[in-house]
Amino acid sequence: MGASTIDTDVNDELVQIVDEENKAVKGAPRWVMRKQNLPHRSSYVFIYNSKKQLYVQMRTLTKDYLPGYYTPVSYTHLRAHETGRNLVCRLLLEKKKKKKKKKNIKNKKKK
To answer: Among positive and negative, which fits the CA dihedral 52, 50, 73, 69?
Structure first.
């Protein structure tokens, strides 16, 4: 898969653009933010196991930023309308949905 397979829905998603004082000034599509290198807000959720080891994931090769690199398990940009708390809730729910989906796929393969 090449870079041309990047999910267009994600690239059209509006992210928060900020000024020099980190005040939200507008929303812009992710691809515009990347192309114009606009300052924006993003967030990481660090997840550790009981041995205090950090969980990481390898980014897919179709990502527009750092494809194939290791990053914390949950990382995303604030959407134009989101608060930081909303973002954390969204991240954790999305991870839970992905985990549930993977579990269902594994169960189907066993049958």
So the answer is: positive
- In sign, the C-alpha dihedral spanning 50, 54, 57, 58 is negative
Return the residue matching tokens 């005040």: 23
Alpha-carbon distance of 68 to 90, in angstroms, equals 24
CB 15 within 8 A of CB 28: yes
What is the per-residue pLDDT across 53-75, written as a single tens digit (0 to 9) for each?
998 889 889 888 889 999 887 66
The CA distance from 6 to 1, in Å, is 9
Distance CA 64, CA 4 (A): 10
In terms of pLDDT, which residue wins out, 7 or 105?
105
